Amino acid sequence: MYNSSSVHTTCLSLFSLSASLCLHPLFKVHQWGDKSVRLINLCLSVCFPFSAFFFLFILSFFQVDRFLYAMRLHDDQLKDISARFQAEMKKGLSAESNAAAAVKMLPTHVRSTPDGTEKGQFVALDLGGSKFKVLQVKVREGMGIRRGGVEMEEKIYPIPKELLSGRGTELFDHVSESLKDFLHEKNISLEKKHPLAFTFSFPCEHSKLDQGLLVNWSKNYRVRGLQGKDVVKTLREAIDRTGGMNVEVLAMVNDTVATMMTCGFDDQYCDVGLIIGTGTNACYMEGLRNVDLVEGDEGRMCINTEWGGFGDDGALNDYITEFDREVDAASNNPGKQIFEKMVSGMYLGELVRLVVLKMAKRGKLFDGQVSDALRTTGKITTAHVAAMEQYKTGLNNTRDILTELDLNPSPDDCVAVQHISTIVSFRSSNLVAAGLAAILSRIKRNRNLRTLRITVGVDGTVYKTYPKRLHKVVRRLLPECHVRFVLSDSGSSKGAALVTAVAQRLASLRQQVDETLCPFKLSQEQLQLVKARMRAGLEAGLKTKGSSAIKMLPSYVYRTPDGTEHGKYLALDLGGTNFRAMMVNFKRQNARLYHKIYTIPLEIMQGTGEELFDHIAQCVSDFLDYMGMKNAHLPAGFTFSFPCEQTAIDTGTLVSWTKGYKATDCEGHDVVSMLREAIKRRNNNATFDLDIVAVVNDTVGTMMSCAYEDPQCEIGLIAGTGTNVCYMEEKKEVDAELSKMCINTEWGGLGDDGSLDDIITPYDMEVNQNSINPGRQRFEKLTSGMYLGEIVRQVLLDLTRGGLLFRGHVTETLKTPGIFETKYLSQIESDRLALLQVRSILQQLGLKGTCDDSIIVKEVCGAVSRRAAQLCGAGMAAVVDKIRENRGLDHLNITVGVDGALYKLHPHFSRVLKDTTEVLAPQCNVTFLPSEEGSGKGAALISAVARQMHG
Ligand code: 0WK
Ligand code: 0WK
Ligand code: BGC
Ligand code: BGC
C-alpha cells in the first residue's frame, strides 16, 4: 500500500534506529548513577525513531511550505490587502469611479435591518448557492420584550446541469415550476395572494427592491440571454407562463443581504452579511450620504460589495500565484472574480489539485507519479479539501481521496497533500478576514467610533467547515473591535422574507407618514389663496380700525433714516427671546452700540404687569451701571414686540399679549406709562431717568435698523418666537397729511376670523387649544418659533400612537408640552447633521428610536418648518405686491429687513421664504437683509428722528 516514499520512510527509520544505537556509548558518563544512564538510553532509543518520523513530517511540510510560500500570508500582508480593499470600496461608492471599479458596491435599497415588528406569511426562493430552495416563511411579530418568531418549511430542487448554461427563460421556468410544485405539495392555496421573497446570489443593479438588472453570472452559472436584464421581471414572466399561482414578487435580495437580515432578526448589532460558500461575498450597512449612486443623505442602505471581483483590475496581482492564474484561465469567466477564485468553495479544491499536480510532476509527491484523474479539472473538490483537513481522520481521508485519484500516496505524501489543503484553505480564511477587516474599519470610521461592537451574519459551506479560523484572524487584525459571528441557522430565506416584510412595513409606514404630512404640503394654489387672504386682511385692517384679524396698527414712523441722525440713545428691546438693553451713539452716519441681554423668567412674563416692568427697570438700571452711566438722563427708544395701538410715537396701548406673555393689568394700558411708572417706583434708589421718546414694534425697529444700511428697506419682518411684518404704507391709506407711514400689520392674527381653517390641521388645533391665547394669532401659530416645535411634537405623538414611530411607545417625554423646542428643528434639519446625531438629539429628549425613526422625525420637522416658511412667503408676497400696486408700479425693487431666530438659525427657512415670495410676487424683486444689531438700533434711530421732528 506504500509507494517509493514509503521506502524512504523505512530507510530513514532504520537509519535513525542505528544512529541511536551508535550514539548510546557517548552518553555513558561515569559520574551518573546506573539508573539515570539506563533512563537516558531508553529515551534515546525510543525517541530517535519517532523524531525520524517527525523529521520526515517536517521535511514534507517544509517542502510544501517552500512550494506554496506565496500563499502563506502574514498579518502585514493581510493589512495591506485590507487597505487595498478599502480603497476599492471607496472607488465603488463614488459616482465618478464606480463604472470602472472592480468591487461593484451595489446599492440594495434595503434601508434598515429588522426591528421585530415584521410579520406575515411569505413564499421564498433561494437561487445561486449550492442548493436551490423553495420555502414558506411565517414571521410572527414580536410583542413587547418577546421577540417575534419565524417558522419555515423548505424543499430543495436540483437544478439540471444543462440549465446552468441554457437560456434564462428555461432556468426561470424551472424555478417557477418548482415553486408551483412546492405550493402544491405543501397544500398552500394557489388562489390566495402570496408575497414572494427572492434570494438571487449574483450581482444585480437595483433601482428598487423589486427590480434588479443582472450584472454578470458567477460560480458555475453561465445562463444566456439574461445579463443586463431585470431578473424580477424574468421571474414574474416565468410565473405567469407557469400559471395557476397567485404570487407577487415583492423583493429580490442577494444572499449576503438575506443572511444579514436573518441574523439581524435576533441580533440588532448585525450590520454585515458574509457568504463563504460556492462563491463569496459580503454586504454591510453604509451611510446613505456615502452612496453616490442613490439619492438622499438620510439613513443607511445595505451595500452588496460583490467583493468576489476584488483584483479584477490587477489590485491583487502581487498576491496571485501561478495556481490562481491557472484556475482563472480554466474557469468559465477568466479575468473575473479573482478574489472569489482565491477564496470560495467553487475553486479551493481545484487549487489544491493544481498544486498537488505540479508537485507530483516535479517528483516531490507520489515519486513523480501523475494519474489522469489528477490531471482532470474538478477531481479534487472543496469537500475533499475539508475532508483531508479533518481533525484525526484527515490523513486517512487524504489517503482515500488520493487513492481514488488512482495515486499511491506514501504517508508523507498524505502529510504533504493535507498540508497543501491547509495552506490553500487557510489563505481563503485569511483573505476573507482581510476583506472583512476593511469593511469593519470603514463602519467604525463612518460612525466616528474608537471601538466597534458589531455582529457579522455568516453562511456558506466553506465557512461552516472552518468558522474559527476566520474569527481568530479578524480579531487579530482588529483588536479594538468586538466582532461577533452568527451563523445563519436557516439559510437566507428567513432574511429575504424579512426584507420583504420590512419593505412592506416601510412601504406602509411611508404611505401613512405621507398621509399624515400631506396636509402640511401646501400647493401653489393654496399658497396663492393665503396670499389673497393676507392681502384682503391687510386691506380690511386699513379700513376698519382694530376690529379686523390683521390689526394694521399705525406706528407714527413716517420715514426711514437718512443718515442725519446723531446723538446718544438708550434702546430697550422686549418681546423676543430675551430683553435687551442697548446704548447707541450715532455720529457722522455711523452708529456705535453697546448692549447687554437679560432673560425674562416665565413667572415674570406671566406675573403682574408691575412685576414685569419693575424687572425691566431693574435690567435698565443694571445696564447703566454696567455702562458706568449711573446718573444718566437719556432719550430712549422702547422696542415692544406686541400689538400696540399708538396715537403718537411715544405712546402705545397694548392690544393683547402674544407669544408666552400674559402679565396682568397690561392689556389696554399704555406701555410707555407703565415703564415710566416702574422707573419712578425705583425713585428711592433710581439714579437714572429716561426720556422715552419712542415706542416701536420690533418689526418697525428692524426695518429702521436695516434702512440705515439700505435705503431701499421699507419692510420689517420678524420670524422668531413670534412673527410679524411692517411696511411703509402710502398716505391716502392712513392719513391725508403725510406721505407715508409705517404700518405694523400684526399679520400673526390672520386666520383669527377662520380664514385659514381650510389649511389648519388637527395638530395646529391641538397647539392652539393648549396655548395661553386660544383662537388668536392663528397665522403666528402656524409659522413662528414659539409653536413649530409643539406642532412637531403633536405629529410625533400621533405617529407614535399609530405605532409608526418609536415602536409605538408613547413616553412621558413625548406627552410633555414644550419639550420639543423649535431649536431642535433647526438642529435636526441641518444638512450637516448625520442621522446618528438626530438620533442623539432624540435620545437627549428621552426618545429612543431607530434610524428609520430619525428619518421620519426629520421629515416631520421639514414639513412643519417648510409650511411655516411658505406661509410667510405667501404673506410677504401679499405685502410687496400691495406696495407695488400702491405705487402703481409694474415692477418693484424693495428690501426687507429681517430678524428672528427662526429666520437666522433655521437651515432652510430663509431660502424657502425667499423662493415662495419670488414665485408668488413675480413683479417684485425682494431682497432680504438680516438685521445685524437687532431692532434696538432701529428704536434709537426712530428716537433720533422723533427728536429731530419734535426738536
Ligand atoms: C445558504 C443560503 C444561500 C446562499 C448559500 C451560500 O441560504 O442563500 O447562497 O448559503 O452558501 P453555499 O451554498 O454556496 O455554500
Ligand atoms: C431680535 C430683535 C428683537 C426681536 C427678536 C425676534 O432685536 O426686537 O423681537 O429679534 O426674534 P426672536 O428673539 O423672537 O427669535
Ligand atoms: C456572487 C454574489 C454572491 C456570492 C455568494 C458570488 O459569486 O457574485 O452575488 O453573493 O457568490 O453566493
Ligand atoms: C407680536 C408682534 C411681534 C412679533 C414678533 C408677535 O407675537 O404680536 O408684535 O412683532 O410677535 O416678535
From TrEMBL:
Catalyzed chemical reaction(s): D-glucose + ATP = D-glucose 6-phosphate + ADP + H(+); a D-hexose + ATP = a D-hexose 6-phosphate + ADP + H(+)
EC number: 2.7.1.1
Membrane-spanning intervals of the chain: 6-27, 39-62
Domain of life: Eukaryota
Signal peptide: none
One Pfam family of this chain: Hexokinase_1
Ranges for domain Hexokinase C-terminal: 272-502, 714-945
Domain Hexokinase N-terminal span(s) in chain numbering: 64-264, 513-708
Keyword annotations: ATP-binding, Glycolysis, Kinase, Membrane, Nucleotide-binding, Transferase, Transmembrane, Transmembrane helix
Gene3D superfamilies the UniProt entry points to: 3.30.420.40, 3.40.367.20
Pathway given in the UniProt record: Carbohydrate metabolism; hexose metabolism; Carbohydrate degradation; glycolysis; D-glyceraldehyde 3-phosphate and glycerone phosphate from D-glucose: step 1/4
GO cellular component terms listed in the entry, alphabetical order: cytosol; mitochondrion
GO MF annotation terms: ATP binding; D-glucose binding; fructokinase activity; glucokinase activity
GO biological process: glucose metabolic process; glycolytic process; intracellular glucose homeostasis
Keyword Glycoprotein recorded: no
Family that this chain belongs to: Belongs to the hexokinase family.
PANTHER family found in the cross-reference section: HEXOKINASE (PTHR19443), HEXOKINASE HKDC1 (PTHR19443:SF28)
Official protein name in the record: hexokinase
Organism of derivation: Sparus aurata (Gilthead sea bream)
Gene coding for it: HKDC1
